[in-house]
Amino acid sequence: MFNKTYNLITTDSRDEGKVLVDTFIFHTFFMMTMFNQINSRVVDKDDMNVCKTICNNPIFWLIWIAEMGIEHLMIIWSGTTKTGGNILGMAPLPFEVMIISSLIGAFSIVIHVVQVKIPLPLFEKLDEKIGIDSEKGAQMV
Question: How much is the pLDDT for 39?
Fold first, then answer.
């Protein structure tokens, strides 16, 4: 995806290709965390609509937007100055890669819907068979 190759073992940790991949992984993780904050606003096990209470708390959105802004400023700063890249240990991401990171992060909303659809009795039956709360069951898993 980045057209820059490196070896995990022998490549210097400040290699441009390695830093770019690390920045992509970090940004993707960050985006997943941000979308998970939206998922976490609805905790009812039967409710899949995460947008139901989306406008209830303006302070949440203020903080959410500030976090997004700081993350994107970090990526921009790492690309505009050599010092910024060295301090943050990041490389500037191309726009397409940032979109891919955002889409992967937004996929956590889909995961939330799938997770809500899984019936709990399935896990209860599994727990009866394995006994995951017991010492023996925990070792099996």
Answer: 83
DSSP characters for 59-117? HHHHHHHHHHHHHHHHHHHHHH-HHHHHHHT--PPPHHHHHHHHHHHHHHHHHHHHHHH
Q: Are 106 and 33 in contact (CB under 8 A)?
A: no
Domain that holds residue 105: 16-140
- pLDDT (average), residues 19-31: 90
Domain membership of residue 9 (yes or no) is no
In a domain, 113, yes or no: yes
d(CA 8, CA 117) in angstroms, rounded, equals: 39
On whether the CB atoms of residues 27 and 93 are closer than 8 A, the answer is yes
Q: Which among 92, 89, 55 is positioned nearest to 76, based on CA atoms?
A: 92
What are the angstrom distances between the C-alpha of 76 and each of 12, 17, 60, 92, 98? 23, 17, 24, 6, 11
Total-model pTM:
0.73
Q: pLDDT tens digits, residue range 66-113?
A: 999 999 998 888 877 777 777 888 888 888 999 999 999 999 888 888
